[in-house]
Each structure stands twice: as structure tokens, then as C-alpha cells.
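Give me C-alpha cells for this 430-residue protein.
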Amino acid sequence: MFLFKPTKKEEPKKPEDSRVNQDLELVMKLNQEFASSLDLNETLNTALKEILNRLNAQAGNVFLINEKIKKFECIASLHQDYLEDYQLDLKDGVMGKAVEQRKCIRVGDVRKDVRPIAEFYFDLDNKTNFTTFSVLCAPLIAANECIGVIHCLNKKTNNKLFEEKDRQLLETLAAPAAFAIRNAKMAKDMIEKNKIQKEVEIVGDIQKSLLSQNKKDPFPIAGINIPAKVVSGDFYNFSDLGDGKYGFGVADVSGKGIKSSLLMSKASSLYRCLSKTNFSAADLLIQLNNEICETISRGMFVTMLIGIYDSNKKELLLSSAGHEPPIIFDSNGNFSNYNESGPPLGIMAKTKYQEHTIPFDKSSMYIFTDGITEIRNPKGEELGSVGFQNYIKKYKDHPNNERLKAMIDDILGAGHIQKDDLTIVAVDGN
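Here you go.
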């Protein structure tokens, strides 16, 4: 005898079960689509389209929080194009409430809702010629940080009203959207950062091209510049003026960063231009100061030393605008300083500068910026003028272009920590 077990009939799926499965499939689809895109605009539009379609909503927007100005910025909008680039206070409307409470909020019928958040839409509708009936707004929370909101308007039904199940659904869909938007935003910020970095590198390359190049053949002047960062606030230039005369200039801008480097680029360009027609060191400083004073930012200034070495007369003509006193190392192994100076460039227009002539035979002069003497060892001790003099003695027999590199390499190799630009120009008397 065979017993047959009756086959259990499959019960038809309830509409609720089918809807839950659809929602889960949509969440998975969104996660997959979001994971494949790091483009912020693409991510935002994809999120909006999918969510509005699932909610059967008439319009929707994504507002991100701009932390700098403390406002909502509409950066994506469907069927409400007039809201793009729109800014709102963080406390405004249901969006402000959603961020404050960190949960999805539903305004079932704006015209019957007595809460203050409903009043916001009457004002907005008057400005945009859009009629708001019902609102859903979910905060975009990623890594415990609220970065903005998804804002949906009017269900495409006869009464145009969202229901509680719609609120729950948007709350579910907002989570993967938030992480996707955060990742896309981080990718965009990184691209912008890299772009800025590349532009800074270009500025650095331009600055390097403005520096005089050391000669392979024997030449009385050589220079070296090691920026603390990509760009430098230091500058030097030297040239053969003919008849045994050689011109040179060294400058240092106050402060650090892009602002200082731009001022240095201006100062160096002015110097290169004006020095071609003006062989008076003092007059050149006067001209440079007047030009810089016209456009310099408050609190900034430029120190500069300009000189001419006459190899026939064996003398130096020097003029200084607040620059570090250069060190002179004579043939007997003695050190001295040129201490005459006027105020830095950019402090006061129409300032008069003086120039002085000093004997210079079988000696070397080192013009430097304060990054050299103020550089510190691991103990926090500054190199100082005496420490720098020790390196001058150590490498005095090297050719000037090799000498400067050897000095810098040794200073840094000894563990000194560079926090400022390092610049040295050596002038050798024959």
C-alpha cells in the first residue's frame, strides 16, 4: 500500500512581500551602480532617478551641506531645474528638521500641516511657481556624518500625498545613496586637490626658470635655492654686465606659501627687467620698492640685497633693503659682515636707499636668506652665523657651484630640519 502525501499548495505572495523584495532588489541595484561610479554628478542623477521612480514622486532634489558657508546647496534636481544652485539656511524647512533629528521626515499634506516646517513651502512655492502637496526628506548620513538631504515632492497619485511606507522606503534608500555621494565627493575633492597641486608644481617650475643657472666654466658668482615646499619665497639672479663687471641680487619674501611665491615672482620679474637698464644698485632698489608698494598686500614685504662686483677695480658696490647681512670671508681666513641697510621693500613708497663700495680682493662673499642660519638640528638648536661659517671654511677650496651644493647637502645630512627656503649666492673675488 502506498501512501501519498498531499502536495502543499503554495500560497500566493502577499503584495507586501512582493514590495519588500522589490525594495531589496532596488537597494542592491543602487549599491552596485554607485560602487561603479566615482563621478559626483553621475552618482547624484542616478540616485535621484532611481529613487523618484520607485517612490513614484513628481520631483526631487539633492541638497549638500556647505560647511564653509553653513548652507544647503542644491547640486542636483529633477523636474525642478530652477532649484539648481539654490542655497538655503541649515535650519530651513523639513530639510533642516531632517538633519537636526537625523531621520526621514514626511509632511503628509502641506496645506493641512500646522507645523512650522510646512510654512516654509508656501514661501518657496511663491518664488518657484511650483505647488507642493507632500514632502519626503531623508538625511544623507555616511560614516556618522550628515552630508546633506534627499528631498522628494508630491506623489504621482490623485491626492499627491506620500504615505508612511514611502517614508520608510526613502529612509532605506538614503543609506547607500549617502555613502555613494560621500565617496564621489571625496574622489572629486581629490581630483581638485591633485589639479591644484599640479598647478602649484607649474608655478614652482616657472620660479626655477627665473633663477640664474650656474656656469660650467669658471664664473665669479654661483647660487643655489632649495624650496621648503614646491614653491619658494626666495629669489636670486646674477649676470655678466661686461667690462669685468657682474651684477647680482638676492631676495626673500616674508611669509610662506602661494601668496609669498606670487609676490616673489613679481619681484623677480621686476628685477630682471629693471636691472637691464639700471646699473645703480640704490636706484634699482628705489624703483623696485615703488613698484611693489603699489600692489603689495598689507603686512607683507621683501628683503633684498643688490650688488655689482668689479673685477678690474677689485671692489663691490652693495645696497640692501633689510636683507640678512652677507658674510665676507677673506684670504686670511677672517670673517666680516656688510651691515649697511635700508628698510625692506613694500613698507613705504619713495624710500631712499644708499649704496656703498667696499674693497674685495681674493675674498668670497656669501649672501643668504634667513632659512640658512635659522635651520635647526634635532635638538632644536639653530645653525646660526657661526655654524654657517664653519661650513664656509670646510668647503672653501671647492669651485663655487660645487661648493654651495656640498654645503647644503652637508647641512641637511647632519640632521638639520628644513622648514624654510634655503638660498645662498657666493661671489668670489679673483
